[in-house]
Amino acid sequence: MSIDSTTFRDAMACVGAAVNIITTDGPAGRAGFTASAVCSVTDSPPTLLVCLNRSASVWPVFSNNQALCVNTLAAGQEGLSNLFGGKTPMEERFAAAGWQQGETGCPRLTGALASFDCHISQVVSVGTHDILFCQIVDIARHPTPEGLVWFDRRYHALPANLPTV
Ligand SMILES: NC(=O)c1ccc[n+]([C@@H]2O[C@H](COP(=O)([O-])OP(=O)(O)OC[C@H]3O[C@@H](n4cnc5c(N)ncnc54)[C@H](O)[C@@H]3O)[C@@H](O)[C@H]2O)c1
Ligand SMILES: Cc1cc2c(cc1C)N(C[C@H](O)[C@H](O)[C@H](O)COP(=O)(O)O)c1[nH]c(=O)[nH]c(=O)c1N2
To answer: What role does this protein play (predicted)?
Structure first.
């Protein structure tokens, strides 16, 4: 049975996922894009994967720099996700938030749920996408996280557990 891309996407639309801004900086310059295709691979060595469409304007920058930071968005950061997920010029994307420099030199987003600073350790191409395997060298976490999920083509906030009264 062959599955067309609409059937695939409609099914994937009901698989909820965290929203991340993936950033890079280095010899090829600074860039960032929104990604929901991010997954934990192994904790030894601590590794995650990011799927990046090779037709994205940011692809050559990530490909050359070989380092990236996965910034998992918190509730309230939906606007940033839209900015980094579109055709907005790169300077405009970065001007909309606060950034610090991580250990690899990649931008770490202020207020993110978690930031995973990584070296790209391996790349596997499948269809339209590159799977970037990323070895984590440093992690920063939000002290009071409230999550954000992309589900049914919309954002949904995940409030923290409030104490019962
Ligand atoms: N993995 C991805 O590359 C990916 C994931 C999510 C969204 N997007 C981009 O955002 C746009 C809006 O997404 P949407 O969720 O509102 O509606 P949509 O109908 O385009 O996508 C539904 C779901 O299908 C998957 N998907 C979409 N495009 C894909 C692709 N090229 N390769 C692999 N999986 C893909 C994702 O899980 C997505 O949430 C998409 O058209 C796409 O350009 C890309
Ligand atoms: C919620 C959501 C989730 C994703 C995306 C978009 C949005 C809105 N996009 C698309 C990606 O962000 C977009 O193509 C980039 O911004 C690259 O665009 P430019 O070519 O740089 O304008 C995206 N692209 C990708 O290669 N892998 C992914 O996992 C995702 N996930």
So the answer is: Catalyzes the reduction of FMN to FMNH2 which is used to reduce pyrimidine by RutA via the Rut pathway.
Which atom number of ligand 2 is nearest to the Cα of residue 55? Answer: 20
Which ipTM value was assigned to this complex?
Answer: 0.97
Return d(Cα 62, Cα 51) in angstroms, integer. Answer: 12
| Residue located nearest, by CA, to atom 9 of ligand 1 | 85
C-alpha–C-alpha distance, residues 128 and 52, integer Å: 8
150 lines ligand 2 (CB under 6 A): yes
Pocket test for ligand 1, best of 3, 5, 9, 78 (most atoms within 8 A of CB): 9
In whole angstroms, give the CA distance from residue 19 to residue 65. 22
Residue 74 Cα distances to 27, 81, 114, 142, angstroms = 29, 10, 9, 9
Query: What is the token pair recorded at 139?
Result: 């992690």
Strands 67-72 and 20-24: antiparallel
> What is the reported pTM?
0.97
pLDDT of the chain along its 165 residues, tens only? 899 999 999 999 999 999 999 999 999 999 999 999 999 999 999 999 999 999 999 999 999 999 999 999 999 999 999 999 988 999 999 999 999 999 999 999 999 999 999 999 999 999 999 999 999 999 999 998 899 999 999 999 998 876 666
